[in-house]
Design brief:
Helices cover 20% and strands 24% of the residues. With 597 residues, the chain is of the alpha+beta class. Among the domains are: 104 residues, Lipocalin (Beta Barrel), CATH 2.40.128; 88 residues, PDZ domain (Pdz3 Domain), CATH 2.30.42.
Length: 597
């Protein structure tokens, strides 16, 4: 696990963030708690493990737990219309955007809800409520113009005031039909206030934080604790509602809390323990299971390509839940649940491994790039079982030099170094283009230099409409990307629309080998009749690290082991004329890599 601190320090040195705190628990015990870097952007004050971070949307699971506590007490009904508790939301309309085919102008029409928004809709983000900055539809624009932008929110306003302003706006979707991230948890916080008869901060403090011993969690940081508060990203300083150094009455259930890694670890351990910690029961086991399993119907549409029945993750009641290990780009067991905050705070709980991991950082943008390495390094520290030196070795094994030379090359293990999931390999045939789904179309963000898309003249801003005459309209982003991929050296035709061009443009391309960022690779060379192996990708792999070649000991013509460390076992396999494969720790927890050159 020392690799975690080394990687975080490399990010601090590169200026990605000023500091980081990581906490990992396994089987109910703290296995790792360490701070790296600095508390302040000027990098003058060393960061400590009990540093206080604004955890942003990691508030949402906490608010969701509060709501389910009230459900268990009979004070809140999941199936009830939200307007039972918040009458001002009863007559909210749904905004439907239409486009005049002749004039080309958009128009927003309002229609009534087909069914009322329910409390369950708030918990699973199917309420129709959205965030002002998560889309560019007419409804999103109304949210931006309404003063719901955090820059316009005062810390001396209240959740009641917020909901009243929200009630004057339309919903973006019919309740229950679309998963879209938004203000659902903020409204849920107000529901908790009404159902409990207490302000949200008091309910959380009395019923959750004090019982769990979460001594540093709340909606603001008192003066005596300010010396532990981590500097926010520069971009966050312009948001008045995020000045957590001052008391507030605007208790954002969607993003208002500050906390520490030890505090949030206790919250997660309560969930992993089926609702109980140190003799204090917060929820029943059945409620925890309900919150951390899929709550989305099979026909739900999603505005996020990473969420929903057709993706690798689904949503419970307050948590994202991993549903498909093979399609995910991060390691972990099916059933793991997680969430994150906009400035980089992140956690997940893996019940199958009895594992909790938390990483707290403050970054300005694109925090996702720091979550995958942290997960890989965490799972990479789990042993598949130390079987020690193979007992079948009775003496030195001599291998033909030609056979040894046949094992040389680079082997990729994909985007996961975990033996706990079955990952797609990180090298594949593709076009080398970064795309995103915007308003239902696949838009090119940037072509990768030297790759087929760039060579063919694809440009940022191009809209891809067809692949080999098949329209991609209606596909999810994952589905469109899968169609762009294929065997190396195979042909594909793209039809694109480019701003300033009168008609569509057709471009023929040939798929090339694409290596995904963050892939774990091993480099193997034959030197003087011995195989030397070291990590050559972005991540270490079991015993192997970059810049530290290890000589492996043969036990047969195609099997080897590391004489030290975790005694990683290796087997080189080939099926017919297919590429050479390298299997690490053959058995139920094996990791398989494929030679790419």
């Amino acid at each position: 696990m020392a690799r975690i601190a080394a990687w975080q320090q490399s990010q601090v040195d590169a200026g990605a963030f000023s500091g980081a705190v990581a906490a990992i628990a396994r089987n109910g015990k703290v296995a790792y708690l360490r701070a790296v870097g600095f508390r302040d952007r000027a990098k003058t004050i060393p960061l400590q493990p009990d540093a206080i971070f604004w955890i942003a949307s990691m508030t949402k699971p906490v608010t969701s737990v509060a709501a389910m506590m009230l459900v268990e007490e009979g004070k809140l009904d999941l199936a009830a219309p939200v307007h039972r508790y918040l009458p001002e939301l009863k007559d909210m309309m749904v905004g439907v955007e239409t486009k005049d085919p002749v004039a080309g102008q958009s128009k927003l029409a309002l229609e009534p809800q087909k069914r009322p928004m329910t409390v369950e809709d708030l918990l699973r983000h199917t309420s129709g409520l959205v965030y002002f900055d998560h889309g560019n539809t007419a409804v999103h624009k109304l949210y931006r113009e309404s003063g719901l932008d955090p820059k316009s929110l005062a810390r001396d306003s209240t959740l009641k005031d917020f909901v009243s302003r929200l009630a004057r706006l339309p919903l973006a979707h019919q309740p229950g039909e679309v998963w879209e991230y938004g203000h659902s948890a903020d409204v849920l916080g107000r529901v908790v206030e009404v159902a409990s008869g207490q302000p949200l901060d008091q309910f959380l403090d009395n019923r959750l934080f004090k019982p769990l011993g979460m001594v540093d969690t709340g909606f603001w940081v008192p003066p005596e604790k300010l010396a532990r508060l981590v500097d926010p990203p520069i971009r966050a300083q312009i948001l008045p509602d995020r000045d957590v150094t001052k008391p507030t009455t605007l208790f954002s259930g969607g993003g208002g809390l500050v906390s520490t890694a030890p505090d949030y670890l206790r919250f997660c351990q309560m969930l992993l323990n089926d609702g109980e910690l140190d003799g204090v029961r917060i929820l029943s086991p059945a409620t925890v299971r309900r919150m951390t399993t899929n709550s989305l119907p099979p026909d739900i549409r999603s505005t996020s390509d990473g969420m929903g029945p057709r993706s690798d993750a689904t949503f419970g009641l307050g948590f994202g839940v991993r549903s498909d290990a093979a399609r995910s780009w991060v390691p972990g067991s099916v059933g793991s649940f997680t969430w994150s905050g906009v400035w980089g705070t992140y956690f997940w709980v893996d019940p199958a491994e009895q594992l909790i991991a938390i990483q707290l950082i403050h970054v300005a943008t694109k925090f996702d790039q720091f979550t995958r390495p942290f997960r890989n390094l965490t799972y990479g520290a789990l042993r598949a079982g130390d079987e020690g030196v193979p007992t079948s070795v009775t003496g030195p094994v001599t291998i033909d030099p030609t056979m040894l030379a046949g094992y040389e090359g680079t082997y990729t293990f994909g985007l996961s170094t975990s033996s706990r999931d079955k990952q797609a390999l990180g090298a594949l045939g593709g076009l080398g283009v970064d795309v995103a789904m915007e308003q239902g179309v696949v838009k090119v963000l940037s072509p990768i230099r030297g790759m087929p898309a760039a060579k063919a003249g694809i440009m940022a801003g191009d809209i891809i409409t067809h692949l080999d005459d098949a329209a991609i309209q209606g596909l999810s982003l994952n589905q469109a990307i899968e169609k762009m991929r294929g065997p190396v050296n195979t042909n594909v035709r793209l039809r694109i629309i480019r701003k300033g061009q009168d008609g569509p443009i057709e471009l023929p391309l040939v798929r090339a080998r694409i290596r995904l960022q963050g892939a774990a690779d091993l480099q193997i060379v034959n030197k003087d009749g011995h195989l030397l192996i070291e990590a050559s990708g972005d991540l270490p792999v079991l015993d192997f690290e970059k810049g530290a070649a290890i000589t492996v000991v043969p036990t047969s013509s195609n099997e080897f082991f590391v004489d030290g460390g975790d005694h990683t076992r290796l087997a080189f396999l080939r099926d017919g004329a297919g590429p050479m494969r390298l299997v690490l720790n053959p058995g139920p927890w094996q990791i398989t890599g494929q030679r790419i050159n």
